[in-house]
Amino acid sequence: MGYVCDFCGEQRSMVYCRSDAASLCLSCDRNVHSANALSKRHSRTLLCERCNSQPAGVRCAEERISLCQNCDWAGHGTSTSASTHRRQTINSYSGCPSASELSSIWSFVLDFPSRGESTCEQELGLMSIAENSATNSWGPTENTIGQSASGAVEVNDRREIAKSGVWHGSSSIHESSSVPNNLDQTTRSANTSLPKLCCPGTKCPAPYEDADLYEDFNMDEMDLSLENYEELFGVTLNNSEELLENGGIDSLFGTRDMSGADSNCQGAVAAEGSSVGLVNTVQPASSNAASADSTMSNKTEPILCFTEKQGHSSLSFSGLNVESSAADYQDCGASSMLLMGEPPWCPPCPESPFSSANRSDAVMRYKEKKKTRMFEKKVRYASRKARADVRRRVKGRFVKAGDAYDYDPLSQTRSF
DNA sequence: AGTTTAGTGTGGACCACAACTCGTT
DNA sequence: GAAACGAGTTGTGGTCCACACTAAA
Length: 416
Known about the structure:
InterPro entries: CCT_domain (IPR010402), CONSTANS-like_Bbox1 (IPR049808), Znf_B-box (IPR000315). This protein is mainly alpha-helical.
């Protein structure tokens, strides 16, 4: 069970989609989840390599295996030797990431000991980033890469970063310890001409000037920074709480749609920043009413927004300076890739009130909170949805089989 | 400034029935 | 304890409608 793709039944499954409760190979994952705006929002993660039926939550660096919670507990919770294994959090993504992008999320994905030879991987390698940047709906990729000279980030650079597997800006793998930061050169060069990120609530000296600070940079710390908005930005916690209540980081970063003219990031100032990794990761996004709501309802409140205009990137907070418009987002597709991991948004610095313990506590709290909250309608039973999708109706209501209908989803015809 | 009207947005109810849950045998 | 069975419950999407809110007259 779970060894082969639930969709094609041929390839070995690699990722797990909770929404569909399905294990898929990479190509089917891509096919299935590029079908429509809703499917693009499905959150997927790697499949547990032990039980092959559950979504993996961690990766054991020692065993080089991705494990679900149960298998992780079984393997590491009991054995004293194994319990010391270094483990990385594996988080989910949505949208239609390309091969490069996937490999940047899961830097280890290409050297799975047991799966490296599958067709999926071959296909993975064949999927070109050009194809995706031009055609897929994974956010405004064409806008976020290939910057001007000042931006100094080109697609090639990005690919190199991806290859290096230490693109922590987007990787959801949290390995904060001591991965050599190949990003240094790129970030340094980029940072010399790009605005610096600054966290008003903290006293980070020359933030992000030191490329080491990028080391731990990914989305969950972004979450964290919002969770601790007050400390970080000196605004009332209510605002950030409400922001989170209303969809929080998901809406801000386009993991949900934002439709219509109201979806523009209502302004942004305060802190501007950019990072090579982040440029490709934090994508403004797309068009979801819920998200629009959240944005709307908080439009006078601090809003964190990433904007990209003519090669200039800026990551912004608050709600004043409009650097982006709805048009910027409308092409983002339903879902930019959502990367959840440990977010090094505001990296720890000596003066920061954030001790690492507090940080991890805050991350835990936020993750717990996020887990228990339903930000959007989730289809629990795909089979029921499939049925409902094809059922005939009268004025939107289901009708008995054989009865007259005025709407047939399959044929769009009427029986009377 | 206060009242009325028109327009817009939102959320809940409704429908049939396969899938699911749970208790009983 | 496991399996089979039956009864009750749940969840699915498009449409309608009541209600709340806003802007204009």
